[in-house]
Amino acid sequence: MSSKASLLLVGAGGHARSCIDVIEHDGRFSIVGLLGLPHEVGTQVLGYPVLGTDDDLPGIVKKVGNALVTLGQIKTAEPRIRLFRQLEAVGCDLPVIISPRAHVSRHARLGAGTIVMHGALVNAGAEVGRNCIINSQALIEHDACIGDHCHISTAATVNGGVWVGEGSFVGSNTVVRQGVRIGANCLIGIGQCVLIDCADGSYMPSRKDKQ
């Protein structure tokens, strides 16, 4: 009999696949299945069953206890926030998941329900909030502060002392200058160089979108 704790994944799309790979490598949890959209129920994701939808969450969580939001985040954090709050409301434990192929300093802090993907680095003095995605090869430098429900996307660089507000998205290969403040609910597109502060709700399109 497995001694691993059971884990329910909430979200059954592409991001869930990446999360599954990290969870399997982490080795602490046994994935019991996923919750997804109605048309996904009865299918499998990398061999794990889609057990139901959000409506089935309370009953399943009572049996499992641990859950992780595995829905992706690009345009808005609202769906991930809603699911996270549902899980909190039913008393679910929301573990931090760290890939063994990532490095998180023992002097950094991570909030509940956050996942750090393969190749990411979270340096000393950094703080990452709850329900965040620190995606593959992202860099969170010393003393940076990432608010709740943020997605720091693949190969993004958040330099020292940067502050990112709740619910914001920082796109792939974006570089944020040291000490810059990005407000809440901002959308920073792919490949940007963020050199000045961004107000709440700012939209900085990707380079391709600008053309």
Give structural notes.
The chain has 211 residues and is an alpha/beta fold. The protein has two domains: 5-89, Rossmann fold (3-Layer(aba) Sandwich); 97-202, 3 Solenoid (UDP N-Acetylglucosamine Acyltransferase, domain 1), CATH 2.160.10.10. The chain contains four helices and 23 strands. It has helices at 14-26, 57-64, 78-89, 207-210; strands at 5-10, 29-35, 44-45, 48-52, 67-69, 97-98, 103-104, 109-110, 115-116, 121-122, 127-128, 133-134, 139-140, 145-146, 151-152, 157-158, 163-164, 169-170, 175-176, 181-182, 187-188, 193-194, 203-204. The N and C termini lie far apart (57 Å).
Provide mean pLDDT, rounded.
Answer: 95
For the largest beta sheet, what order do the strands appear in spatially? 6-9-12-15-18-21-23
**Shape from CA axes?**
globular
Helix content: 10-25%
Count of domain modules: 2
CATH superfamily of the largest domain: Hexapeptide repeat proteins
Total E-strand runs: 23
Q: How would you spell out the order of helices and strands? A: EHEEEHEHEEEEEEEEEEEEEEEEEEH
Low-pLDDT regions: none
- Note the beta-strand portion: 25-35%
Major sheet characteristics: 7 strands, parallel
**Structural class by SSE content:** alpha/beta
* CATH class placement of the largest domain: Mainly Beta
How many individual helices?
4
Topology:
Layout: E1 5-10, H1 14-26, E2 29-35, E3 44-45, E4 48-52, H2 57-64, E5 67-69, H3 78-89, E6 97-98, E7 103-104, E8 109-110, E9 115-116, E10 121-122, E11 127-128, E12 133-134, E13 139-140, E14 145-146, E15 151-152, E16 157-158, E17 163-164, E18 169-170, E19 175-176, E20 181-182, E21 187-188, E22 193-194, E23 203-204, H4 207-210
Parallel strand pairs: 1-2, 1-5, 2-4, 6-9, 7-10, 8-11, 9-12, 10-13, 11-14, 12-15, 13-16, 14-17, 15-18, 16-19, 17-20, 18-21, 19-22, 21-23
Antiparallel strand pairs: 3-4
